[in-house]
Task: structure prediction
Amino acid sequence: MVPPRKDGVTRVHEAGQPILSRDLLRLADGCMLPLQNAILKLEDNLLKEEDPNYPVFTVKVPNDLADFVHEAPADLFFISYEDVFKLFHYRRLDYNLVRLYALNQAMRIRRDNTPYVKVVDPYYMRDSQLVQGSTTRAMATEFLRRIMLTNQDKNSLLLPFFSE
Result:
């Protein structure tokens, strides 16, 4: 067990324990409570297993979103329960949560038929992917060139960047 900070706030998520403290539970709204309850239930089941797996949510990038990377390994990513804990406690977000948010916004823009705005997949937008001379930098350059050419009619291209 990792000891809590001096103010009593837990530093990391412990399996089987609530993600939100009692104080944060009073302030929680929207999907926070159902998500915490789902994680608690899933962890409860995992802890009963003899050989539990690492607790994650799996996210598959929909094939019909043209401005997202669909080739392996980018077509599938994972959100750990620890990442949700960090999100709820206002800590540095994991790159995959940034990508999940971009995916959510892209789906919302498409559903609402919002004109002139496009959200671009931030898969390549990490310092480690953009190192001078790397293969991924060349792939990122080609990806962004294609996105910009196919979306010339858009006033806004939203591209999250994840600085490491």
